[in-house]
Amino acid sequence: MPRLLQRFLNAIQPPDQAFAEQALARQAQLVKPPGSLGQLETVAAQMAAIQATPTPQTSPRTIVIFCADHGVCVEGISAFPASITHQHLRNFITGGAAIAILAELTGSQLLICDVGVDADLSDLPGIRHGKVQRGTRNFLVEPAMTTAEAEQAIRFGFETIGELAEQGQRVVAIGEMGIGNTTAAAAVTAALTQRPPEEVTGRGSGLSTTGVTHKVAVIRRALEHHRPNPNDPLDILVKVGGFDLAAMCGAFLGCAASRVAAVADGFVSTAAAALAAALAPMAREFMLFGHRSAEPGHQALLDVLQATPLLQLDMRLGEASGAALTFPILDAACRLHASMATFAEANLG
To answer: Which positions are catalytic residues (predicted)?
Structure first.
């Protein structure tokens, strides 16, 4: 394993479970039937452990979107051309994208990162620049990236979170934008879970049934060609991943190292979360899961991670949109935990 990546993994310490136990003990004393707030109770306890405090907070918070292009798009695996990536990124900046609206609605900072977009974005304001290359290589014929490139993208994601933590951010939603990234995510998922490609591959941005069949065939041929090691997440990432996936993997690791709650979005984001958890199992304890995507591979990843998402809205937009929608739920969980009266305070029981 590269020395820098090992240093990142060594920086991860477990959440403070004493605060989780304290939170659950308080939940048992609140004026309500035991367990009646369901996942809100476990979320509050997890947040307490992550932040090592009896009163966890959900703000300030940031939505981070890692943008990158994918060389495999030349195989016709997407309903849209690769040029949409940089065009839509500009929509993020001008405020017309769904996630820009959700960021404003939820009182969240929005951070757009270029980790591998196939365009010169140096003229755009408000972009965090970390471009590794202008898109990955076509993984049908060669590895998507080199080990050094994967490490560079992971480092960018890790250090991005480190800077946010220094600013006092307590919660980060982690998402992506990049035409072709559901193909990379499906390939990563098939390799990591050892499920056949047809079980974990969906329509992405809107493929027809014929298009999905072709997408599955491309993924199967790539996996047969490269034979990524299912026990080596870095090998999977290098052979069939993407720079957005690598940066998000680094971001999940960064959240764990900085004791920041990480909210995974949908399929692509959760594929990165699964890679991070495979590299550092302890990082899983810092993850929450926003929603269950309509993409079929998402459930396979959730099963591996033993995760229950907070929402199920049949979304497949990406952009951290599902993760952002959970912010009010996190707000409610922490507010109820801190502010509800106990039976003793209410003179009940």
So the answer is: 319
**DSSP label of 341:** P
Sign of the Cα pseudo-torsion (235, 219, 138, 295, in order): negative
Instruction: Name the residue ranges covered by the structural domains of the chain.
Output: 61-330
Single-letter residue type at 211:
G
Known catalytic residues are: 319
DSSP string of 252-304, one letter each residue: HHHHHHHT-EEEE-SHHHHHHHHHHHHH-GGGGGGEEE-B--SSTHHHHHHHH
Topology of the domain covering 61-330? Rossmann fold (3.40.50)
Cβ-contact 102, 324 below 8 angstroms: yes
pLDDT of 257 reads: 98
Pairing of strands 261-264, 171-177: parallel
Low-confidence residues in the chain, pLDDT < 70: 1, 349
Return phi, psi of residue 175, to 5°.
-140, -170
Half-sphere exposure in the Cβ direction for 93 (13 Å, CA): 17
> Taking each helix axis from N to C terminus, what angle separates 297-305 and 181-193, rounded to the nearest 10 degrees?
50
Predicted confidence at residue 259, as pLDDT, reads 98
| 225 phi, psi to nearest 5 deg | -70, -45
The widest CA-to-CA distance across the chain, in whole angstroms, is 70
Tokens 């980060």 sit at which residue?
172
Residues 6+ apart with CB under 8 A from 210: none
Which of 315, 334, 339, 337 lies closest to 325, judged by CA?
315
61 touches 327 (CB < 8 A): yes
Which pLDDT score, from 0 to 100, does residue 3 have?
Answer: 83
pTM over 0.85: yes
Distance from C-alpha of 38 to C-alpha of 148, rounded to nearest angstrom: 44
| Token duo for residue 292 | 């269950």
